[in-house]
Amino acid sequence: MKKIIVLILCLTIAVLAPCQSKKERKKNKIKSTTEFVTVGENAQAITYKSHYEEFDKEGHRIQLIDYNENGSVLYKETAKYDSFKNKVEETTFDGKKNKSSRTTYKYNALRDLTEEADYNNSGGMTKRIVFSYNADGNKATETVYDGTGALEKKITYSYNAKTLKTERKSYNSTNILESVKKWEYEYF
Predict the structure, then answer these.
(1) How many angstroms from the chain centroid is the CA of residue 29?
(2) Fewer CB atoms inside 10 Å of the end CB: C or N, the chain?
(3) Centroid of chain to Cα 158
């Protein structure tokens, strides 16, 4: 019976979750949502807070927390946004592994993502990704570095005359081609 209740709850969440889009959260001025789960029957039933989400006035999720039955934190995520509504920082905490991490994001004047950097528990950089764009504003390259600044891989993108992505090439740290992905389009 316990498994059936949890299954029904999961299906309900899967069906209802899309109803709370960022647009709807902003329109309805939703500041937070809290999810409670009841497990068991009658006198054996236990109800606990399982999930909490908090949003800013624009509808961006700024905090998410998942809880165990005993109330301890399983997972926590927070996010910060700039005045242009770009995510500039995200922190995560994994309660199972007792690990936290932080990711920062930088943007150019056109609000294109130009850099993403990951940091570990102690604040040391573990990965940095630098993005460049072509004259049409499409991503041209994605260059991945490890925490010491050494190149790990580089990805290049090609586009057709309609600015649709046609090719993605991935190179390893020694500039050897590892993979190619291609897109072809048919038009009316």
Answers:
(1) 23
(2) C
(3) 25
pLDDT in tens, 57-76: 988 999 999 999 999 999 99
Report d(CA 113, CA 85) in Å as an integer. 12
Q: Which domains does the chain have, with CATH numbers?
A: 2-182 (2.40.128.720)
Q: What is the pLDDT of residue 3?
A: 47
| The pLDDT of residue 124 is above 90 | yes
Cβ atoms of 121 and 146 closer than 8 Å:
no
List the one residue out of 28, 27, 24, 50 whose CA is nearest residue 37. Answer: 50
Q: Tokens for 89?
A: 């920082």
Question: Which tokens go with 88?
Answer: 């500039």
C-alpha–C-alpha distance, residues 155 and 136, integer Å: 18
